[in-house]
Amino acid sequence: MKRKKRWWGIWARGAVTAFSLFVALDTFVIPASYSSVKASDSTLFSELESRAAAESTAATATESTAAAAAESTATAATVAESTAVATADSDVVTASAGGLSGTSLGTAKTDDYSITVTKYQEYDTAIYVADITVSSAEIIKTALADDTYGKNITAYTSTIASENQAVLAINGDYYGAQESGYVIRNGVAYRETSDGEDILVLYADGSMKVLDSDDVTVQELLDQGVWQAWSFGPGLLSDGEVTVGENTEVSRAMNSNPRTAIGQIDDNHYVFVVSDGRTDESKGLSLYELAEFMESLGCRTAYNLDGGGSSTMYFNGSVINNPTTNGRIKERAVSDIVYIG
């Protein structure tokens, strides 16, 4: 009888172990294909651009009405506030223009885009910045590994970039490791389940915002003309203000890490940012340090994408930073990229 109980206990523990292993493999390893990626469609972009323009016009009209009412009731206060804002803006421009010095890593220019890549050394960390101006938000594209939307379908950032003739690329939000979080890529919605966290949306009119995913549905985003939506976060800057604290961190992440971020400076003017980390030569950044750095670049909106071993910048045919995977300088396969090309 005791022997039977002992064997039963061994079998039960084995079954639990096997189930736990299957869950881990299913979550992080076993690939599952849900659909093929739809090709980028200029007609779809034009439709989204029209929706975004209509939303922007309505918002501007509302803001103008509110501003006029405020001005009529508090002219003196408005003048004083305008003076303060102008002074603050001047300080930011000065800091952005004179506070950083780096090494140029090259440029790329066509009629559709202009890219300048610079390497900085800040916070004991190598930080790579691609300063980008585009003729239209349509130029900022995304691509998924193997042109497939699914779970645990991955490829190196450089591989996806090369397959899509990208001139510049960074890793995206690694949507394929999550079961929730909005996924809108090149105007197409692939996942409509909110994760309750910050999302970054790029509208077809070129504007960029950080939103709470619980406050808006995917259909509402498409109706507003959203071209891309990423779910990782958190947001780093909104309206030029840092939105993370010194102790803010992504779950399961160390305080100093390789990082990837995207930000907007002005109309059709963006930055892709990747930092090294976890090496003797490059410590890595906290989220707060990343936010401060994005602010110093002059960003008014900025957002944290997947970091750690995923953090990779590809430019003119090569990986230009030092991605770290399991203690080695090596790319980690990811679900998706953001690219110009």
UniProtKB/TrEMBL annotation:
Stored InterPro entries: NAGPA
Domain Phosphodiester glycosidase stretches: 164-340
Keywords: Glycosidase, Hydrolase
Tree of life domain: Bacteria
Pfam families found in the cross-reference section: NAGPA
GO molecular function, one term: hydrolase activity, acting on glycosyl bonds
PANTHER family given in the database record: N-ACETYLGLUCOSAMINE-1-PHOSPHODIESTER ALPHA-N-ACETYLGLUCOSAMINIDASE
Listed name of the protein: Phosphodiester glycosidase family protein
